[in-house]
Design goal:
The protein is mostly helical and 110 residues long. Helices cover 82% and strands 0% of the residues. The radius of gyration is 14 Å and the shape is globular.
Length: 110
């Protein structure tokens, strides 16, 4: 994968995570339940020690509360990109919103 493609993937991930924030804040109990379910599923799927460390960071944030999850979701740099690769936020953002963002980012790249 080219560096440009990686940058676009990281940018898309950041857009999706940013769009998820209002849903985290407006219904934290629902979001926290989704996060916990996703983390349990991901623990069985990832093999690398590094990825398990990222999941640990997400799990700690989820236990601390919504603002801790927001900080992890929006973390900058390579560490933020890595954490978003194993993000447990799938399902918090409504699918129609997710599709709208995918289309917006795809159109901007054209």
């Amino acid at each position: 994968m080219s560096p440009q493609a990686l940058t676009r993937a990281a940018e898309l991930s950041l857009h999706l995570h940013s769009a998820t924030l209002p849903y985290l804040r407006s219904d934290w109990p629902r979001a926290q339940s989704i996060i916990r379910e996703n983390l349990a599923l991901q623990r069985g799927l990832v093999r690398s020690t590094l990825a398990h460390g990222w999941l640990d960071q997400w799990e700690t944030a989820a236990a601390e509360g919504v603002e801790a999850v927001v900080r992890v979701a929006m973390m900058g740099g390579e560490r933020g990109d890595d954490l978003r690769q194993v993000s447990p936020l799938a399902g918090v953002l409504p699918n129609d919103e997710r599709l709208r963002i995918l289309e917006k980012v795809r159109s901007a790249a054209s």
